[in-house]
Amino acid sequence: MALAAHTDTTYFTDPAGLQTFHLLSHTKGSGGTSLLVDGFKAAQVLRSESSGAFEDLCRTKFRGHSSGNEGIAITPSHAFPVITAEPDSSGQSCGRSEVTQIRWNNDDRAAMFELDPEAVSKFYAAARKWVEILRRPEMEYWVQLTPGKVL
Asked: CB count, 10 Å around CB of 65?
């Protein structure tokens, strides 16, 4: 089963900025296909198609978490938005400012109990639009890993 488009380590305060993947061996099986999506391009598309959804994903902060092992939970030191953008010349983040980070992993999102219900509803509406963009065939790049090939 293929994983949906996501960024890794959203539950770290300072997630990995660059990752490499490799396949050591692959015998008599299937799989090993990796999905890549340009999150910065997806943010650009979201901004042009739905500026309100872009703003919501840029301004709504929440925590990620990793809790796959019993007794272990990893969370960042504070909440972060899906889209991080540097403040522009007027001091506004989001808006027309430059996107500097994407944090998206639908499976690592912690409970959003710090937000009021209206903010949660707006977030999920924006997230639906974001996922619709991420799943567009023209946004997806699939690559088959082979032994010795580094991605």
From this structure: 16
DSSP SS3 for 106: coil
Low-confidence ranges of the chain (pLDDT < 50): none
**Is 146 in a helix, a strand, or coil?**
coil
pTM comes to 0.87
Query: Which three-class secondary structure string do you get for 9-59?
Result: CCCCCCCCCCCCCECCCCCCCCCCEEEEECHHHHHHHHHHHCHHHHHHHHH
Determine contact, residues 66/108, Cβ cutoff 8 Å: yes
**Six token digits for residue 75:** 């969370």
For the chain, helix (H) and strand (E) counts, in that order, are 3, 4
Identify the bridge partners of residue 120 per DSSP, sorted by sequence position. Answer: none
Token pair for 36: 């890549």
- pLDDT for 74: 83
Structure tokens, 142: 């699939």
Look up tokens 């949906």; give the residue: 4
SS3 104: coil
